[in-house]
């Protein structure tokens, strides 16, 4: 019984890896930067519970540096090549606009001095991430 279960699990995991979106999915420099951004957001949410604005502002400054780095990388969903076609360049410009939008929201978080400003900035960050992922993030399990 255990053997059957084990082989079933193995074949399911094999099937999903056979359909992986791209061999580099989740392994790019951009994915690495995004992972750091996720860690910063976790730390910010922790600090937000204690209304420690100074701490939030300083982590937000670190987040801002990651966001500025993310601006320089082309999402895998657009291409894995260095040379961009005109159409890919257009998509990359759209991606950069999404990152600029995020940068604005994170900048307002670095300047937030009260809970209302902080909440508004966090809301904008969440929206920018959702929109950006919907448009440009590949689903690694597909
Ligand atoms: C603070 C806001 C954000 C956070 C915390 C965040 C977090 C993440 C995480 C955790 C991943 C998965 C990384 C992995 O696979 O290891 C990811 C991937 C990705 N995110 Fe974000 N994200 C944010 C905002 C955005 C925005 C605004 C955009 C686009 C305008 C964006 C575009 C992408 C793309 C394209 C990927 C896939 C990376 C690749 O193509 O190699 N993200 N993000």
Automatic annotation (TrEMBL):
Pfam families, A to Z: Cytochrom_B562
Lineage per the UniProt record: Bacteria, Pseudomonadati, Pseudomonadota, Gammaproteobacteria, Alteromonadales
Organism: Thalassotalea psychrophila
InterPro entries assigned to the protein according to its UniProt record, in alphabetical order: Cyt_b562, Cyt_c/b562
Full protein name: Cytochrome b562
Keyword annotations of the record: Coiled coil, Signal
Superkingdom: Bacteria
Gene3D superfamilies (UniProt xref): Cytochrome c/b562
Signal peptide: 1-20
Sections of the chain in a coiled coil: 85-119
UniProt keyword annotation of Transport present: no
Family of the protein in this entry: Belongs to the cytochrome b562 family.
SUPFAM superfamilies: Cytochromes
């Amino acid at each position: 019984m255990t053997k059957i279960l084990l082989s079933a699990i193995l074949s399911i995991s094999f099937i999903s890896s056979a359909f992986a979106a791209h061999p580099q999915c989740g392994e790019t420099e951009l994915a690495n930067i995004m992972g750091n951004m996720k860690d910063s957001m976790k730390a910010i949410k922790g600090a937000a519970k204690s209304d420690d604005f100074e701490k939030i502002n300083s982590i937000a400054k670190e987040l801002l540096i990651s966001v500025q780095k993310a601006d320089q990388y082309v999402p895998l969903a657009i291409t894995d090549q260095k040379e961009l076609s005109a159409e890919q360049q257009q998509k990359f410009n759209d991606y950069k606009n999404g990152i600029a939008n995020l940068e604005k929201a994170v900048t307002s978080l670095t300047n937030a001095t009260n809970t209302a400003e902080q909440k508004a900035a966090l809301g904008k960050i969440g929206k920018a991430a959702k929109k950006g992922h919907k448009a440009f993030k590949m689903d690694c399990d597909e």
